[in-house]
Amino acid sequence: MAKIDFGGVQEDVITREEFTVAQAQQTLKNEVVATLGYGIQGRSQALNMRDNGIQVIIGQRKDSKTYQQALQDGWIPGETLFSLQEAAQRSTIKMILLTDAAQKEEWPNIKPGLKKDDALYFSHGFGIVFKEQTGIIPPKDIDVILVAPKGSGTSVRRNFIDGSGINSSYAIFQDATGKATQRAKALGIAIGSGYLFPTTFEKETYSDLTGERGTLMGALAGIIEAQYSTLREHGHTPSEAFNETVEELTQSLIRLVDENGMDWMYNNCSETARIGALRWKERFRSATKPVFDSLYELTATGEESRIVLERSKEPNYKQKLADELKAMANSELWRTGTTVRSLRPNKQNQQKQ
Hints:
The protein is α/β, with parallel strands linked by helices. It has two domains: 2-199, NAD(P)-binding Rossmann-like Domain (Rossmann fold, 3-Layer(aba) Sandwich), CATH 3.40.50.720; 211-346, N-(1-d-carboxylethyl)-l-norvaline Dehydrogenase, domain 2.
């Protein structure tokens, strides 16, 4: 474990040089790892582990699209592909990678498969942290661990293939065997993490829910819609409004932030942009900080989790979700985005010129 300075704060992290794939293979050599759920996160983690030489089986309902995806990916019914219940019975490590609502629904089917000294693995602490709402209370004689990639399942797989990896947090909720930490580290490396950093189930859950509703998705989408609307209301064309709101962000500025940080991006923009952005940054921070404080409080008190579980159980939930996402896709803002993306020069054509 390496002690790394993060902005003046020392943190312990685990890199792939310190805990290698070979060590992960050795740690997990006598384990059968079941990925319960083959959605975006489950598929990526399962494929990465299989590619890293870990003994993996899949638990998935037969009547689902993801079951067909599992077949296409080479998982074999009766050998490496089973029902959720049978995969739980056959495995020593159960990776519950279902949606949070599905975890609550399927817990009575998964729990009987837990045997003494098994491990229960999560990539989000929701089900454990809000156990009063989910009913997920593990027996005391098993390990309960978490490895949470800080990115979508799609990125987990893409970054694994290109060799970079997605950074992940890890946590131990219950160490019944004395090897929970080693199991968590091994699984974190096996799924292709760039590096691992410690957390707790509570902190992972609160930060994840805050991040998704905030900067990563909710706030980002809301701010983009607000700026685009303001520009359109003042007579700017859809193309101009989109380019100044989204295209420059995604194709230029955020890439500079990724390379060397926000200050470096500022130093690579015009003086006019820097002066204005630094001044307005303070105003946006003052305006949004109370919103983030409220968001964190509602997350920590369980209000956000309650809403998730209630809404996901509504009989028309999937249709309502589809309708909301369709409305987003059909908005002028994102229809303009589709057109703008189609006009980007083809990389192959650029190379030929």
